[in-house]
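So, can you check this record?

>
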Amino acid sequence: MRTPASLVLLATLSACAGPRLYQDPADDLGAYARITIRNASPLALSARLFDDSVTCAGLVKLYENNAAVAPGEGKAVYAKKGAPFTIGAFYMRALGNGVRQCAVNTTVVPTAASYQVVYDADVEAKRCGVAVAEGEGRSSLALPRERFVIRKASQPFLQDGPWCKPLSAEQRAILGLPEAAAAR
């Protein structure tokens, strides 16, 4: 049986459709935490979310045309309370001798009404930093490092694959997640 060329083309194009654009939830916002992603670096911050925050699969872009969070600015998003939420952050700078970059993926399980996730970078040293705080504004309290995890980045073969290394048993315990099911 032959597959029509139009079906092959449609399947190919749909696989290359790219990430969807983030949209605020349409249902009760009381079930969600407001998370403000802040850029404390003088460089533009490329940030992305994921449909599946445990595996970092299913890219979700924050802005149309992949625009970045400007230096000193922030972008508010909503995350389901009690569920893992991962932000992928990336800085890049062209230098005379090439490109320097750093990336950090941050996972938190929100329980409060609002959080700030503040990113900074020393791209020359290839180092990204992150701080997570509960609340809004200067009076917010920084979360202890035991309440969020920084995940190692990975580059998937296809754009929709996992962008993070799997959560370790220690990271799952920090986030209060059950142990992963054993591979079969």
